[in-house]
Amino acid sequence: MSNSAYRLAALLLALGIFLFDVLSPLEGAIAVLYVLVVLVAARTLRRVDVLVAAAGTIVLTLLAYAISHGLEDFGSPALRATVSLAAIAIATVLALQSQAATATLAAQARLLNLSHDMIFVRDIRGVITFWNDAAAEVYGWSADEAIGRVADELLGTKYPADRAVVEAALLKNGRWEGLLEQRTRTGARLVLDSRWAMQRDRFGNNVGVLETHTDITERQAAHAALVRSERRYRRMFDSSRIGVIEEDWSAVRTELANLAEAGTSISDHLAANPDFYARARRLIKILDVNAALLSMVSAHDRMQLLTTLDDVLGAADTTFAGALVAFARGDAFYEGETEMVSSDGKSFPVLFTITFPSSPDDGGKALVYVMDITERKRAQDAIQQAQAELAHAARVATLGELTASIAHEVSQPLMAVVTNGEAGMRWLRREPPEFNEVEIALGRVVAEGRRASDIVKRIRAFLMKAPSHRDELALSALLEDAAALVQRELAKVNVQLKIELQPHLPNIRGDRVQLQQVLVNLMINAAHAMAGQRGARMQFITAAKTEVNDIEIIVRDTGPGIPHEHLQRLFEPFFTTKPDGMGMGLAICKTTVEAHGGRMTVESLPGQGATFRVTLPSGDAFAAA
Ligand code: ADP
User: Fold this and answer.
1) For 39-43, 304-308, 394-398, which range has the lowest pLDDT when averaged over its residues?
2) Ligand 1 atom showing the smallest separation from residue 612 Cα
3) Is residue 23 located within the same domain as residue 122?
4) How far apart are alpha carbons 357 and 327 in whole angstroms?
5) Residue having the nearest C-alpha atom to atom 26 of ligand 1
């Protein structure tokens, strides 16, 4: 009923009572019934309605009294009227008090309705007695539908533990908190963060429970998705057959940022402060490694490896400086080939890719993927070894053939020399000697001798035939290719190679493979010479233009050098000081260089290394020729 309806009802009731009071012959306290008018007016919950009803009924009581009894008679009717007035006054006071209490409760209920959480109150039997707006909205039942129903049945509540355990905790502490599941009207299941509080009356009796529920279904789903994703990545990390290292580069990032602020380039800084390289290696912390990496470095325990990059990167590494520069430049990743150290101190070759931290909120974490290539290298070495042996065998075979054909060609004139010599001697021993015949025989000896010499010259000319290709060759590329060919051979005996080219060198002309072979031979010879020595093993190759526009390539080493008595014979075929040497290398080098129109010389002070000088005409000279 609306407020107006209550007001109208109160008015009609008051008039009815008034008429009954005035017209009825009954002598009684009929005016007491006005209490009902006050109570009906109180239902509007408005204070003014109660006061108006009270005032109106008091006036009507007095009016009825005046009409029925006049104002002189103060007997028992006056007493009855007084009782009625007292009843109206008491009812008014109680109605006002009840209204005030109801208003307070309503205000509190409105507050609860403001909450986004679902709040309801149930009595100790579980029957719902209050149901806020959020509960109506989320669960789908209105307050009218929910009030009077048993909460657990309506919402199909599922508890994390036994219901009795929850109830026991609530009774003991007066509170309970936890996660539970409930169902909405449409059947959707909600995950709720719940807080319960026991409501007690002033005697301490439990009268109800206030339940507050926060819907965390989405949060829970997002969290579960995150956990699943984390598990998936963890599995990838752990089960990958490629070694993975998680590293913290934040300290290095700070150092690099400071350098950038000071306007220093990282390459300049590295050049001026060589110790920065070692310090940066120690600044990078290892946060985690996967199982594949553990077995790669023969470690048993992850903790064993949670040190710094310096502890796992080989001392001979040359890639870290490049990685620092790439990181400073903001590159997304950097890859290369280097050496790692296993827990027993042995180095092994690896291919790696570093994925750098891309944004500041990823905590400076980089992931390094590592692949052990020991086996691959071993296979490569075996192939190279086989190739070298094959080439050696081919050389020996060719040499054998050459020797046979030289022997064959030269043996004929030699036989003729011997035969004619013997004939001449026979003519000389005759009595008298036949000088004529002797002369003829000697003439044949000389002719056959010449023939043999011609054969030898022809073979020499054949061996020294001009290079088969005459290409225009850039010296830098030629040297780089040759260096790449011997790189592993040099690394094996720890030789450091430094190449320095004068800028803007003209090209040379010649056979790329043959010239490369010359350089390779010189570099390998130097490496072999230095293999057994202590201290630095350095090799320097420089190339510059001479005054007469030739190109001079100098190959110098810090090896033992060459004894004076050997220097003269160094380029002779078959001169070697090595037990398994053939002594053909330098001879072929010299022949090749000369076939290119160049010269080759050697100088050496024993104990101070050897210097080979190869002079070749430049492309300019060829063009001019
Ligand atoms: P092989 O290498 O088969 O001995 P080579 O003709 O290449 O044949 O070399 C001849 C010899 O020259 C070597 O045995 C070595 O004694 C000497 N030799 C060559 N290069 C160097 C060098 N850089 N330092 C010292 N000795 C060298």
Assistant:
1) 394-398
2) 23
3) no
4) 9
5) 562
